[in-house]
Predict the structure.
Amino acid sequence: MNKRSVLITGCSSGIGWATAAEMAARNWRIFATARNSEDMKRIEEEGWNAVTLDVSSSDSIAQAVATVLDATDGSLDGVVNNAGFGMPGAIEDLSREAMQRQFEVNLFGALELTNLLLPALRKGPQGRVVYISSLVGRMSLPFMGIYSASKFALEAVADAQRIELSMTPVRVVLIAPGPIGTRFSSTCAMEGESRLDVHRSRFSTAYERYFKQRRGGGMSEDRFRLPPEAVAKKVAHALISDRPKVRYLVTLPTYVADFLVRFVPVRWRDSVMQQQVKKRFSSN
């Protein structure tokens, strides 16, 4: 019996790496993507198929798809769109390029890749399209507004695509991790520090504190962080189950956010967030 196969993006570390390990342990054939040679070498050492992919590049996406489909004779059982990019900052402080970059990676790249793979996914008995969304895909947070917007958009597209593919064997699934013990938070801080014109912002003093907290584990949600393996377990269920859930929540803050969005008035939520912003940025 042939192994089932899955393409997983963003496998240099964190959720992507943990998901590849989880599915390999379940005897799936893994196509794991990364951008640099060192990560590609580590992937190969694990015995997985390493695929070079930059989801912000159409040429790179086309080449990766050709590589995978050639290796699988044009068939594939699942794609996990995990590659992501976040840059914190007040919306007024973000350049157009910074906004575009987040949408290119988190939305457009994932959709272009998925669209090219759909003919192969439709061939199997139960193809899967898995999108790694976020807590902020349902509840937008200040100073992560554009990242939130890209994840809101991803969820909207997934909702539409789920119906569009309902008459095929392909199922579309969203995973909302919340705070996970990966490099994402510290990478966000480094992106903000290197790309924002902090000193010209009215939030300049606050940014210094915010970035320090993100790098050093000083965020309020840090106490609820789970390891990336917790997400990988949910992804595995989404790929394997005959009846996968539409949306999987992982961490406690994600469950709380889901409840707040559905049952708590917007004015009350705004009031709570305003108090938190004033507390964190009281020097401004």
